[in-house]
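To whoever is on call:

I kicked off a structure prediction for a single chain this morning and the downstream step that reads the tokens threw a length-mismatch warning. I double-checked the sequence; it's 275 residues and nothing unusual in it as far as I can see. Pasting both halves so you can look.
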Amino acid sequence: MRGDRGRRRRRWPTAGRRVVAALTSAFDLKRTHLDLVLQGKRGNLSSDGEPARRVILTILNIFVRPDRALIGMDTAVVNSQGGQSFEANKFGVLSESGLFIGWRGDTAAGAILFAECLAAQCYIDFDVIEPEMPRLIVETLETRHQQRIAQGAPPEVLSSPHCHSIQVGLVGWSKSAGRMRGILFTKQGEAGDVGVEPISATGIIAPGDIIAPSLREPVSSVAAMERVARAQFDAAKAKGDSLGGGFGGALLLIELERDQVRIRRRRIFEKSVGC
């Protein structure tokens, strides 16, 4: 992992941490308005299916060039205990820092992680947050686990690998590299470290193993990204619920450059898979 090689590692700002402590408490869904709205639909709002299953079906496609990144994500989230579908963002953008943070897995955990970065946005850029992200992910999953305990989640949920797993895509302008860079962080299960995978020129297509190899080529246009997303949706639909959950809703297309961000919304899915 980069961060300690060739340069001194910069610490996560103390002021940001104090703000984060206050923000994190706001995500105690047991006492928030969101919890009241979802009464009778309780469960983990997730982008995968039943918590015992390990497959994460959120579309997270990332292609990074030196001057530009193109990212595609869907908007479907599934209540893992009730099976109802909703739509929500599964990413956040810090426009002043030129950072994109998107996640696959528990939607609330991703929101908490983004809140930490949002609270510290005055102090961070890509080069600062990259070496800190593994620690932030571990702390976020622990915070989310404690929330579930406080909410009285059943043992089968608390022991599920899903509750300790997340994938996070980080994309932004790296001052040290003088170009756009991307990293995929993966935490799978309670044990083990956070995996760190630099996003190469071939990009990330997730899920990618369900579509034809010919569609896994680097994507450079919005039209090409839509074709890949449709293929992912159609492949999952053909497999029915065997993949364990759902994705769909709308396709959000994020174009990220050093000094600007564009977000487009495309209704290319007829409905969420697995609903």
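Update from on-call: the warning came from a stale cache, not from the record. Cleared it. Sanity check on the structure: Helices lie at 14-25, 33-37, 107-119, 126-150, 155-158, 222-238.
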